[in-house]
Amino acid sequence: MTNTQSFHSVIPWWVRRNSPWHGEFFNKMLLSADNAFEVRVQSLRELMLPRWQDGKFKLSLQQAKLVTQSYRQTAGQHPAIRRALAFQKIMEEISIGLLPGQIFLGNSSSGPNCVDFNPFFLPLSPDESDQPDGQMSNPLAGADTRYVFSPADQEEFTKEILPYWKGICRESFFFNELKTNEPEAWHFLRYGMGYRTSPLIGNGLAHTIQDKVTFLRKGILAIKQEIQIELDQLDASYPGSITDMDRRSQYRAMLIASDAIITYARRNAEYAEDLAARETDAGRKAELLEMARIAHKVPAYPADTWQEALQSFLFLRNATGIGEGADSHSAGRFDQFMLPFFQKSTNPEEAQFQLEMFYLKWNESRGFNLSASSSGGGNNDKINISGVDENGQDCTNELSYRLLEAYAHVHLIDPNHSVRLHRNTPDSFLKATLEVIRLGGGQPILLNDDAIIPALTGVCHVELNHARHYGDVGCQENITDPNMTGIDTNGRTNTGWINLPKPIELAFYDGVNPLNGIQVGPHTGDPRNFLTMNDFMDAVRQQVNHLVRMNAIVNNVYDLVFTQNYPCVVHNLLHPGTRKTGIDINAGGCHYDWTGCLAVGLANAGDCLSAIDTLLYQTQATTWDELLSALKADWVGYEHLRQMCIQAPKYGCDDPYADTWTRRYFNMVADAFESHSTPRGGRFVVGLISMANYIPLGKWLGATPDGRKNGERLADATSPSSFAPNFGPTATHRSNARAIDGLRTPNGVTFNQRFNATAVSSPRDLSKWADLVRSFMDDGGVEVQYTIVSSDELHQAQSNPAEYRDLIVRVGGYSAVFVELGKDVQDSIIARAEMAF
């Protein structure tokens, strides 16, 4: 029984921010603001907020120290065994903590509000000039802008940890392999400014959906027996191949990892027992003892209750964060596979309280990240809600609504929610979702099953019943959910961000990057000699094909480096395909395999082509000589031409001409990606997602024919550029659906829109909004996400950040606390058009 002792009452966040807490859904919530359970949730939420006021977490070296100690002791052993033993050492020795009043145990770091990092994934290379971002030799240099860490830890890192990993971390192996065997790809990565490589952000293999439900139903001990059976069938004296010898080590590593997770759960149980022994409040003492009982049971044994299932899930999530990096590991179709556990609860209010405390637990720690591309983000772990079942029928259920309530009450950045919509989504559920989005925060995002499922079956060759059980991960990338079908995917869905306008720019200069004067692309000729737009597009196509080929090489080398040096032991344990085959996830152990890249600046690229065709070939209002001179001069002295370019047809205005150019260019990029394959047996696919990369990638571009100046940011994801006239939400939604072929974007789409709260405040406004969403989905739109906040409020938050610690906005494919974001990202969000009906 949950302790309902008195907790300090606080003003709920929605009252403090005067949020629109009204509507049919809010009238049907299980927990009211004065309910004792909800008072406790809000009290703990308030306790967690101060860590965000200066945007910093404590940086701990515990994991780095333990991993380094382990690796010093295991030199010469199989890479999978080394990683498993390092994981085991962490789980046996890492600190354990618990926030007052929390009912769930464990963290993916060395304690609440801490950030740990694994030195495997430090962005180090043998030669810092390898780094296209100019990353310094000490990767923690400048980290004090995001993290608080002691001078003693800085000294130990510099003298003890950094020297050991300098030549043997992932980036060292990667750059050595690339420079030695793929010098052309290294040259383009270093000098081309055509894409940013995701793995450089300092984390491990992310963007997965693991098979957690099998562990909840069976327990780790039963799964260990299954792994042991597979191992026993491999006779080292008579192996079928060299792969069988490697499989033996992979299975042994899984067994070590299994024991390590059980050990960590037991340590948490003992910690709770120790707290209970010192607790003077009888209610809290009983609660701590119940928490200890559960941690002694799960995840070693099957979960029988809702609280046991949630705790088991958290232990597995924590293991992944510690072992593989705490970033974008989706929970999948949580409302579907967790429903049987939820239905075992006899007290609906207590079950809702436990769910909301579970949500709070997700926000206690974050993954280590130094990249500007994810400014202000959390772990970005996804929960998928609603959608169709294996027969194509709607499967919205009671837990679907309760997840919406949990997010509305907790309203922090993790978990990241997506709602799957389709033609038969109940109106009541769609309107409930929009009422929650209206609170602000940019969640949930809205996905179109009727576009995403055909994309998975068509481009990725996923069987229909598997595709219907897709889940989206990270920002909005799509893979199968093994919790529903037992069929897993390694989609490598976040493998870098393509600078979409860059090939167009390279075609201006015969493949020379104008920002450094280095030849990085193929020679495609002087554009002054291009007599038709098709001639120019042929040159652009060659530059696109070259950029994409270089990107494919880079990502295939990453697969090789991971496989040879850093097998993903925890992923292998928690994925059914790898667990069955004994083949590492990076080597093709999952049922489905592909590599997904992301493209940024779609609007800018489409608008560039629209302007070139309009002004040079259709109206002949200018010449190549004049345009190239204007671009080289960054428009200085050519403002008249810049205004002509700005006035040219723009994507986002419901203009078929501009939208067609945007679609034509995207299809060219998709064609290029789909022509390449991975060493895991899959193909390359593409998505249109930016995170905050539209800012650094803009710095890698000179002036462009859409009217941009040198270094200015790009449009985020699939949003219109800042030069597009604001013709309202119907125009932007229609343009998006027309310009993007949703059947070719299995790796996802993000489409950011911003409304003023007054535009969606009344029941009539809500109905118009629901109609807009339905029409967008019917037109083939893939995804849309709404931030409900006015420009005035954003400006006020910039001026008075302490008063806006609850203001959460949508950045790219993730939500963030606005006042944690860098000024450039804040400004880009303010610059988004403010829509109204």
Automatic annotation (TrEMBL):
GO cellular component, one term: cytosol
Region (Disordered): 708-730
SUPFAM superfamilies in UniProt: PFL-like glycyl radical enzymes
UniProt-listed Pfam families: Gly_radical, PFL-like
Residue intervals of the Glycine radical domain: 716-837
Limits of the PFL domain: 39-709
Molecular function via GO: lyase activity
Identification of the protein by name: Formate acetyltransferase
Record lineage: Bacteria, Bacillati, Chloroflexota, Anaerolineae, Anaerolineales
